[in-house]
Amino acid sequence: MRVHVLGSGAGGGLPQWNCACENCMLARTNDPRIAPRTQDSLAIGSKNERTLLVNASPDILRHIERFERLWPRSARQTPIAAIALTNGDLDHVIGLLSLRESQPLRILATPRVRAGLVERNAVLRTLARTPDQVTWTDFELGRELVLADIGIAVTAYPAPGKLPVHLVGLVDPSPEDNVALRVRDLATGRALVVATAVGAFEGIAALVSGAEVALFDGTFWSDDELIALGLGRSRARDMAHVPVGGHEGSLARFAAASFAKTRRIYTHINNTNPMLRADAPERAEVERAGWEIAFDGMEFTV
């Protein structure tokens, strides 16, 4: 199973268009200590050319053009066999609008995410120019979904999260609003866990147990990161992201759970996170703990 990190940044990417924080300014000036990042998305495939995308980033056209495996092989064709959505946040779904050119699409999502997109968003109805253009396949929480044409199987598990901003106040929260994915290679049985939006650590240890690789929420270093920088009023956990650092952060919680045999990679990293800088003490702390930090174009085999 081959995994390609198309985008490793959180919403807005790095640099973020309206931000003059230290990281963004360094990225704009091509400082070698920090690399620009597009918004979160993955491409997962097996030995054939069929590929699963995890989330449809606003940067999806850039992702396709700079990753040859996603290029069409003939007129009006795509190797993208399906797109799995981990939630209905705009930075995970807005890229679908760039794929509306009468191309048949298969989208995997929980019924709640599907309803939020199809029933409450008239713009996304442009995906369905013909009755059979889009096939929605529901994730049933905890039940494996086999994608034989790609050579993988995917299981969605509820992850502590929140409603998309555009649905707050309109519907009640549900366990289906935000999921982590466990992706299994049908040929080898090896597993990858994708948990890029996690608001609390409870239940995560069981999900990651036995997986060869875990791509985990690296959005914020500290709970008060945006507040301390004067860039917002919300804490990391208010936004459904466990911070990386601190006694209750994911770095400490994973260490206590003893996942030394699982390759651990932080992704979905916010533009403000200091661990993005190669010379930052936070980066050194992450690497001493045996973690890696994802970058656009990172590729590995599970």
Structure keywords:
alpha/beta, 14 strands, seven-stranded mixed β-sheet, single chain, 302 residues, globular, 17% helix
Describe what this molecule looks like in 3D.
With 302 residues, the chain is of the alpha/beta class. It is 17% helix and 23% strand. It has eight helices and 14 strands. It has helices at 22-28, 60-65, 90-93, 111-118, 204-208, 225-228, 250-257, 281-288; strands spanning 2-7, 41-45, 51-54, 80-84, 105-109, 134-138, 145-147, 152-158, 179-185, 191-195, 213-217, 263-267, 291-293, 299-301. The strands form two sheets. The protein has a seven-stranded mixed β-sheet with strand order 6-5-4-3-2-1-14. The longest helix is centred in the middle third of the chain and has 8 residues, at 111-118. The radius of gyration is 18 Å and the shape is globular. The N and C termini lie close together (5 Å).
Outline of the structure:
With 302 residues, this protein is of the alpha/beta class. The protein has eight helices and 14 strands. Strand 4 (80-84), helix 3 and strand 5 (105-109) form a beta-alpha-beta unit.
- Number of extended strands: 14
Q: Which regions are unreliable across 5 or more consecutive residues at pLDDT < 50?
A: none
Query: Which geometry do the CA atoms define?
Result: globular
Give the class from helix and strand content and strand pairing.
alpha/beta
- Radius of gyration, CA atoms, in whole angstroms: 18 Å
How is the largest sheet built, in terms of strand order? 6-5-4-3-2-1-14
> How many helices?
8
Percent strand: 15-25%
Q: How much is the average pLDDT?
A: 93
Largest sheet: 7 strands, mixed
